[in-house]
Amino acid sequence: MKHLISFFLVLVLITLSSCQQIASEDNPTAMTVSEADASLEAYDLTTEDWEMLEGESVKLSVPASYRGGSPNLDLTEIESTLEQLNGDYSERLQAVQENPEEIALIAFDTQFFESDTLTNVNVVQHELDEEISLEDYLSQAVSNLEATHNIEEQEIINNNDTSMGRILTTLTTEEGVEMTQLFYIHSQPEAMWITTYTTPSSEFEQRVSNFEESIASLEIEALE
Question: Which residues belong to the signal peptide in this entry (predicted)?
C-alpha cells in the first residue's frame, strides 16, 4: 500500500518567527519575556467572534483573528497578511509555496504570545488508492508521527454523528519551542481529510476549546 502519511508530514508544522519584540538595550520599551507570559495569563483566548473560511472543497469556522484561505487560490493574499505581521513570515512558507495544491485550507491566528510561533490550522486531503478503515489509517498515522512527535493521545471520537480520528502530540522545534499539535482525521469513501491545529504548548490549554469548536464546524464537499 502507498505510504499513507508521508506527504502531509512536511506541511503540518509551520513554525514562524513571531514579531513579538523582546526588550533589549537597543529597544528598552519592548515587551519582556515575563510581561509576555503575564499577558497570556490575563488574555482570554476564547471568543464568540467567529468567521467561516473557505478552502478548496472545505469550509472551517475559526476565531475572527485568524487569516487564511486556500493556498492554491489565495497564496498572494496569505503572504501579504503574514508580511504585515512580520517581513520574515512569507519567506518561511516555502513548503506551501512549492506545493499549494496539497493544502485545501490554511489559516494563522494574528493573536500570538510565544516567541517564534504563530498558532495555525491547515486542512489537507489525502486521496486513497485503496480502501482502508479509519482505525487502520489512524494506526498508521500514529506510527509515522512517532518518529518526530511524542504521542500524548490517540482515539476515535464522535463529531456531529461522524467518526473521526484524533491524535494529540507534542514536539520541540529546532528553535527550542515546545509545540502541541492536534490532528483530526475525517474519513470519506475515496479520501482522508486531515485537519491539524498547531500552537505553542504554553497556549494549548487556553486554545483547545476553540480547536474543538472549530473542528465541529468542518464542512467537506463530496469528491466528484
Answer: 1-23
